[in-house]
């Protein structure tokens, strides 16, 4: 088995290059940790293309990049006493739109940052409250917040 190479060219057996685990992460908005989330989705982007058909050329088309699109970020967490995200959403429903920046960080077992993405100029556009069911006494109550934003960038 080949040994992993460090950037400096030496061999490294003390730090494996395994994929990062996707269960240990945190979300900050404007530098403040806004709670432990159980799920974050929407970390992707896409380049929209302009298709151009050249006259007389029937075996191919040209494709040119136009612009980037980003889906909404969806944050899911257990419902608790903190209501900062609800207040932000409520402000938007009243016409007070605050565009906030944030960071999503994947952490290792010692809580050190492994990788992070920044999102810019976000505000909430949807909130889902918990599903309440008296027949399941062990179910956690979750809330879901959906954010529109102007881009996700690797930090």
TrEMBL record:
Domain of life of the organism encoding this protein: Bacteria
Source organism of the structure: Anabaena cylindrica (strain ATCC 27899 / PCC 7122)
Protein name: Phage tail protein
GO function terms (MF aspect): structural molecule activity
Pfam family, one: Phage_T4_gp19
Membrane-crossing segments per the record: none
UniProt signal peptide: none
InterPro entries per the UniProt record, alphabetical: CHP02241 (IPR011747), Phage_T4_Gp19 (IPR010667)
């Amino acid at each position: 088995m080949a040994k992993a190479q460090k950037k400096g060219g030496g061999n490294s057996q003390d730090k494996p290059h395994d994929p990062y685990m996707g269960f240990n992460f945190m979300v900050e908005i404007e530098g403040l940790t806004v709670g432990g989330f159980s799920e974050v989705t929407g970390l992707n982007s896409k380049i929209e293309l302009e298709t151009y058909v050249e006259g007389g050329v029937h075996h191919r088309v040209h494709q040119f990049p136009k612009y980037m699109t980003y889906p909404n970020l969806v944050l899911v967490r257990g419902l608790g006493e903190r209501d900062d995200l609800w207040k932000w959403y409520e402000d938007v429903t009243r016409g007070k739109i605050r565009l906030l920046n944030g960071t999503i960080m994947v952490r290792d077992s010692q809580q050190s940052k492994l990788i992070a993405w920044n999102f810019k100029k976000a505000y909430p556009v949807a909130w889902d409250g918990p599903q309440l069911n008296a027949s399941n006494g062990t179910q956690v109550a979750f809330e879901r917040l959906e954010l529109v934003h102007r881009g996700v960038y690797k930090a």
